[in-house]
Specification:
The protein is mostly helical. It folds into 2 domains: about 35 residues; about 60 residues, TrpR-like (Trp Operon Repressor, Chain A, Orthogonal Bundle). It is built from 6 helices and no strands. The protein starts with 8 loop residues before the first helix and ends in a 5-residue tail after the last helix.
Length: about 100
């Protein structure tokens, strides 16, 4: 896809299908060890680090730590901190569920 162009509708459908398949795969994992293996095979080190950093940021935002301090502690940009805070407050509830211990 080139910048500024809207992808065809079927591209959105394919993205949704891939997302749904990924979600079903993650839900089917039955152990911590298998989840770790799957994530290591699926993601690059940078992707894993970024996701872990976002979760760390979400925890600190939830604790009421200032964005500047969160950025200093985690190395995340203030833009990332702001984005995570937004999704923690206004998102689909995933961060909140994890922070509240759902699934543990």
């Amino acid at each position: 896809m080139t910048s500024g162009r809207v992808p065809p509708a079927e591209a959105h459908q394919e993205t949704q299908r891939r997302f749904d398949e990924l979600v079903q795969s993650l839900v089917a994992v039955t152990s911590t060890e298998l989840m770790a293996a799957f994530l290591r095979d699926l993601c690059t080190s940078a992707e894993l680090d970024a996701m872990g950093q976002r979760l760390q940021v979400a925890r600190l935002v939830d604790e009421g730590i200032s964005y500047h301090e969160i950025s200093r502690r985690t190395g995340a940009s203030t833009a990332t901190v702001t984005r995570v805070a937004h999704w923690l407050r206004e998102g689909a509830g995933g961060y909140r569920a994890i922070l509240d211990g759902v699934g543990s």
